[in-house]
Specification:
It is found in: Mitochondrion. With 186 residues, this protein is an alpha+beta fold. The chain has helices at 3-8, 68-93, 158-170, and strands at 19-21, 26-28, 41-42, 48-49, 98-103, 106-111, 116-122, 127-132, 136-143, 148-151. It folds into two domains: 16-53, no CATH class; 68-184, Metal Transport, Frataxin, Chain A.
């Protein structure tokens, strides 16, 4: 059956978008079909078209006026402070299954069965990225007004999020105090 005949079987209320698939040099019949996520639109007896959505939001463009030298100074101070405070916290907790490591701009906090945090510098974007076992991926920009690294989508600081999540996991009050990093490098 030709592609055009297949399209005649799709209800007219379904909106279609065409694109050329250059990778395999064939035209893609349908790029997106706008149907509810829980339903499928039948094309023929054996083929269905489904719409897929991704859970990770599109990246935001960082328009930071921060110089690259200032970014490195601030992010290094933040990562060093975070490492020191997490080491102190893990010493206090005393669980040998927990560990923190910092190497080449990547901090890894392993909390055993609770999961692993990965926090790393992203110099091209002038950001600090976080991968959390609870809240997923986030990208933090430096905000001079609050002297803190903040997530643009919800305004929550890096330290605030870590305090809340680690407190819930370990059932002990955690205060990493990551705001005020610029005072450390003056």
């Amino acid at each position: 059956m030709s592609p055009r005949n297949l399209l005649r079987r799709i209800p007219k209320s379904t909106s279609l978008h065409w694109q050329n698939a250059a990778a395999n040099r064939t035209s893609s019949l349908i790029r997106h079909v706008h149907v509810p996520l829980t339903t499928r639109a039948p094309l023929t007896k054996h083929f269905y078209v489904c719409r897929r959505t991704l859970s990770t939001p599109a990246p935001m463009v960082n328009v930071s006026d921060l110089s690259i030298e200032r970014y490195h100074a601030l992010s290094d101070a933040t990562m060093t402070t975070l490492l020191e405070r997490l080491e102190d916290l893990l010493d206090t907790v005393g669980n040998d299954a927990y560990e923190v490591d910092y190497h080449s701009g990547v901090l890894t906090l392993n909390l055993g069965t609770h999961g692993t945090y990965v926090i790393n510098k992203q110099p091209p974007n002038k950001q600090i990225w976080l991968s959390s076992p609870l809240s997923g991926p986030k990208r933090y920009d430096y905000v001079p007004e609050s002297d803190d690294w903040r997530y643009a989508r919800d305004g929550i600081g890096l330290g605030e999020l870590l305090d809340e999540e680690i407190t819930d996991m370990l059932r002990t009050k955690v205060s990493l105090h990551l705001e005020g990093v610029s005072r450390q490098i003056q």
